[in-house]
Amino acid sequence: MFGDLMGDLSRKQEEMKERLKTIKVTETIDGITLEANANRELQNVSIVDETIMEDKERLEDTIVVAFNRLNNKITETEVLESQKLMAELMPEGFEDLFN
């Protein structure tokens, strides 16, 4: 019983990792957009407002804030996906335990 559960858990963790790679998360502040997947892989940085390039300190601060907000969104996504994973592993009737 527990062997099956552990095997299922390992498979589900791998499935979740692959699923997180397909979920796109973005954050935009002051014309700077950061894009990542929910597996915490930064995929793109876009700067639309070129005037921000003239103020190095503002640019750096904006990137830091955008990255931290992006990271928070990714964490929220991981929690939701983990809850889905746990619900899938629960016996029938216990699915709502993690929602």
Commentary on this structure:
The chain has one domain (2-98): Nucleoid-associated protein YbaB-like domain (Ybab, Chain: A), CATH 3.30.1310. The radius of gyration is 18 Å and the shape is elongated. Helices cover 56% and strands 19% of the residues. The chain has helices at 2-22, 56-89, and strands spanning 24-29, 32-37, 41-47. A three-stranded antiparallel beta sheet has the order 1-2-3. The model has no long low-confidence stretch (mean pLDDT 87).
Strand order in space, largest sheet:
1-2-3
Which structural class matches the secondary elements?
alpha+beta
Shape: elongated
Q: Taking all residues together, what is the mean pLDDT?
A: 87
Provide the CATH architecture: 2-Layer Sandwich
Give short descriptive properties of this protein.
99 residues, alpha+beta, Ybab, Chain: A, 3-stranded antiparallel sheet
Itemize the secondary structure elements and their pairings.
Elements: H1 2-22, E1 24-29, E2 32-37, E3 41-47, H2 56-89
Antiparallel strand pairs: 1-2, 2-3
Helix pairs in contact: 1-2
In short:
The chain is α+β, with helices and mostly antiparallel strands and 99 residues long.
